Amino acid sequence: MTDHLAKATYSGVRAFAAVTTDLVEEARRRHDCYPVATAALGRTMTAALLLAADLKTDAAITMRISGDGPLGKIVADAGSQGTVRGYVENPHVELLLKEGKLGVGSAVGAGNIFVSRFNGANQPFTGSAPLVSGEIAEDVANYLLVSEQMQSTVGLGVLVKPDLTVEAAGGYFVQAMPGAEENVLEAVEKNLMAMPPISELVSQGNDATAILQKIFAGLPANIFEASPLTFYCHCWKLLVIFVVKNIILVRNGLWSC
User: Fold this and answer.
1) What is the SS3 string spanning 97-134?
2) Which domains, and CATH codes, for the chain?
3) Which of 55, 125, 169, 212 lies in the 20 to 30 Å Cα band around 226?
4) What is the pLDDT of residues 182-197, one digit of tens each?
């Protein structure tokens, strides 16, 4: 199952769901992340993709988690075309499991979340909010409420194997729009409470469409076709430009090595 994202709407409620296993594994491999860093970075990248999914063409989002925990800063850049990249400042953090789960909140610590939106034309808009748990999902939901006045529910998860590779990763984002009916909101909330963790759903083989069907169980939601997601870093382009410029300088006798 390749990484992808799908959207669904019904009666004033919209939701996005994403499977991000491969791209989180790619980030883990590139940055040599230990499990807690993998989980924190994977959740942040997935969250950025979910928020970027509703942007206009060529727009992008940068999400920065700035906590005082041992992980340091966590940054993810996501574009409207389903591309993402990210890094964690200190990828070699080791923390003991807490109740069978990675201690992401402790590794992130207290601080703030910053989200910058770029549309290519105007100056980027940056909003911020305090971290409420360091677990990323709750922090993103709180940011949307505090900074953008949007009532939302966010679920994020990364499951790491004993060999440190990523077994499953994904997330969902549910938002009530103006005029949403109370009975619909109650039904969706009940469905969300009955769902297992998102990483468990992905590990069981559920794709984004299946996750959205669980969110809107019992409701005739309109589910749109899924789109692909990929880890993408354009750093190589900067390297190519640097090399080409130096070649030109050498050929023109303006620089020597």
Assistant:
1) CECCECCHHHHHCCEEEEEEEECCCCCCEEEEEECCCC
2) 4-251 (3.55.30.10)
3) 125
4) 999 999 999 999 999 9
